[in-house]
């Protein structure tokens, strides 16, 4: 049994990447609406602003598709899963500051380039660093999974010469820039175009300088499935028509100001989009809470009286869902099940996975509570000729709730925070939108607002739980 379970978990770990590469028979059909995949936190290329997608790539995409006469829609995805989303058919293209690299060219079919820019080194004005060679022994940071990181690693011996023998990486450019601003790193490797946008937002360009020496030019294009050669041919024609027009110059000038400007953009109301994103968080929270608690109780009661083979199935279920990370389970359900003929949309996939996961934890909590009730309570039901349904409803369950309520309360509070994991499915929940706002305005304030909202939610939940405990205290 243990060997079988280990093999099952191992297959879960490798299932998504193996199958994602194997999928190749999906193509864009004439007349259908194409889906553009983007990271909705990646300003200025594409991001969520006041409930709408905007940015350089968004405006460019609108012009190209209007030129082609193709209907389109934008879909937020987790950037680390972009190739899996593409090959699964959840999206039809990756368009969000997607840089060409030799590794990526093996996975996707790229369009013609539409942006080229320097990969440079940004330092503070008073830094002693003047050339790339001066980075030796210094702390250097960049964005994880980026073409900038690959550019560093293509320089023989450079990463090994840095302080600690490695590049420090963060999930977003804004976090990378904050490390330089606070002095925790000596230099950061960045795309100059993105740097221009950030300084146009915070007006801090005068505090920094780019080295004259750089890591070369990055080519940015749109990524398609390898078998989309016909569509990409038509796409390139429309793309180049837009690139050679005055419209493109207007779009480029609007989003990429010259490095060195000191005028910061006006900071908009950040609270409104966060409160809107909190609706998604609360939706997932309430649905999972309402369904998982009775489901966990039913399974625990079933396990108590069921035959041995049913108990074994329940124990395997609990073991798998308690023994593997919830984030992994979300990935397997959404990205893996389509290969078994089961396709769930993003919200149903998130709800189903979290319900099954939380029910598994609650099964053990209820099982422990049932075992804590003295055996004499069950025997008294037989002696008094009370039927099982009435006996459990009037005698056993009231005692059970008193025993398990503190543990159930802990799970409920954890659920509030675990809703943030649905970002992996591209859903714009509270923390993800906070990150998008942080990148959009080059500010850490959105994270403060997110923290306050989470504390408010957990505070309300705690008060409700305390009231329930008082009601059942006897």
From TrEMBL:
Q: What is its main location?
A: membrane
**Which residue range or ranges hold the ABC transmembrane type-1 domain?**
278-465
**Membrane topology of the entry:** Multi-pass membrane protein
User: Subcellular location, in the record's words?
Assistant: Cell membrane
Signal peptide interval:
1-22
- Transmembrane segments annotated in the record for this chain: 282-302, 314-337, 349-366, 447-468
The UniProt keyword set, sorted, is:
Amino-acid transport, Cell membrane, Membrane, Signal, Transmembrane, Transmembrane helix, Transport
The record, for SMART domains, names: PBPb (SM00062)
Q: Which domain of life is it from?
A: Bacteria
One annotated GO molecular function is:
transmembrane transporter activity
One GO cellular component term noted in the UniProt record for this chain: ATP-binding cassette (ABC) transporter complex
Pfam families xrefs: BPD_transp_1 (PF00528), SBP_bac_3 (PF00497)
| SUPFAM superfamilies hit by this protein | MetI-like (SSF161098), Periplasmic binding protein-like II (SSF53850)
Which PANTHER family does the record match to this protein?
A: L-CYSTINE TRANSPORT SYSTEM PERMEASE PROTEIN TCYL (PTHR30614:SF0), MEMBRANE COMPONENT OF AMINO ACID ABC TRANSPORTER (PTHR30614)
Q: Which NCBIfam families match?
A: HEQRo_perm_3TM
What name does UniProt use for this protein?
ABC transporter permease subunit
